[in-house]
Design brief:
mainly beta; Neuraminidase; five-stranded mixed β-sheet; 26 strands
């Protein structure tokens, strides 16, 4: 869902009165014509303004356009040792969730929710990282040892199911939760119907992968799950799975073909290394990022129905020691995306990005404007002719 932003505009009208004296009837006629033409002109201008593009919202750091999106880059009110932030997810209501990060890019344990213009701290306790949020405002996360859920207006709860849950990464509007847990030497993904459920499903790696490391990152309201798994090449790759296919408490992931990466300015000869899917909306549009041989990371959108990748970086991302980073971590049903990037100092900052809408005036708008201007010209010509006749 995207959020409406403030539009500021001004209309200045200057009216100069003539010093010519005409007959009383002609003056009355002229005043009526001026009033009518003014009304028509104002109506036409108003219609044009109402169909003009809506400006993007103001960000703490910058507002930039790229790839059909308006990016708003921001940080919350940073505290302690924080030098930046990571947005790790976004709800369908446009509420982002994330954490402050230190100079090394590590979470400080200070988490937040909100928008680019208004964030609020989360009482998640020290050492926890907030990863996902739904429209009800429930937040999930973890610290690599225990997973949690923080209901809107409630208190932090440790997830008891599955046993050994180490991180909860995503929660949808139905309350379904996905994440990762430990089972002996294995670290599979999990799907939990709700925070109060006593049973869960284990998400397994795609067929052919020898590893048992699976990370379930996001789930939409239709039960489509996305994430990544450790492949036989020692790198992680994207997968998806449908909750409807759970059988006997297990769900098999389906491998997603790695992207054919584009050429990126400043990274000549870079080659693909790994890929992670981090979120998905109800239309099946997933988001994530890939890593290349320069150790840079670049964002993308992935259509799970067509298999098409669309590559997109935050325009504020900059190289630091030859590395630049953009991760797209979440997407709403309205198409708004969220994530973070690194600047020229190597520090991470959050962003949200709305699809850029270019409004084109309706044909009726132009017809109304032309009719108004034409009428004014006709009345003016008639008045001019009568004025000349009266002076003879």
């Amino acid at each position: 869902m995207a959020e409406l932003r403030d539009v500021t505009f001004g209309i200045c009208v200057a009216i100069r009165k003539t010093a010519h004296r005409f007959s009383r009837d002609f003056n009355a006629m002229r005043r009526r014509a001026v009033r009518l033409s003014g009304a028509l002109t104002f109506a036409a201008l108003s219609a044009l303004l109402l169909t003009a593009p809506v400006a993007g919202h103001a960000g703490t750091l910058s507002v930039d356009n790229a790839g059909g999106y308006t990016f708003t880059n921001f940080d919350p009110s940073l505290t302690g040792a924080a030098v930046g932030s990571n947005v790790n997810g976004i709800s369908n209501t446009g509420q982002a969730v994330g954490t402050e990060v230190d100079v090394a890019g590590a979470p400080t344990g200070v988490n937040f929710t909100g928008t680019a213009s208004n964030t609020n701290p989360l009482n998640t306790g020290a050492g926890q990282t907030a990863f996902g949020i739904n429209s009800a405002g429930s937040v999930v996360g973890g610290n690599g040892t225990t997973a949690f859920i923080l209901p809107q207006g409630g208190v932090l709860q440790t997830l008891a199911v599955p046993p050994g849950a180490i991180n909860a990464f995503g929660i949808n509007d139905n309350g379904n939760i996905v994440g990762q847990y430990t089972a002996g030497a294995n670290v599979p993904g999990f799907y939990l119907p709700s925070a109060s459920s006593t049973s869960f499903a284990t998400i397994l790696q795609p067929i052919g992968a020898n590893s048992t490391v699976v990370n379930a990152q996001g789930v939409n309201d239709n039960g489509l799950i996305v994430g990544f798994y450790l492949g036989n090449d020692g790198q992680v790759h994207g997968f998806d799975a449908k909750a409807a296919n759970i059988s006997g408490g297990f769900l098999l992931g389906t491998a997603i073909a790695d992207p054919t990466i584009p050429s990126v300015p400043g990274e000549p000869g870079a080659t693909f290394v790994f890929s992670q899917l981090l979120g998905v909306n109800d239309a099946g549009i997933a988001v994530g990022y890939y890593g290349d041989s320069t150790t840079s990371q670049h964002g993308y959108l992935y259509n799970t129905a067509t298999g098409v990748y669309t590559f997109l970086d935050d325009p504020a991302a900059a190289f630091h020691n030859g590395v630049e980073v953009t991760q797209i971590t979440g997407i709403t049903n309205s198409g708004e995306i969220a994530g973070f990037y690194t600047d020229a100092g190597g520090f991470a900052h959050s962003f949200t990005a709305d699809p850029t809408i270019v409004a084109v005036p309706e044909p009726s708008t132009w017809l109304m404007a032309l009719a108004g201007f034409g009428f004014v010209g006709w009345r003016a010509r008639g008045a001019s002719k009568r004025s000349r006749l009266a002076s003879i």
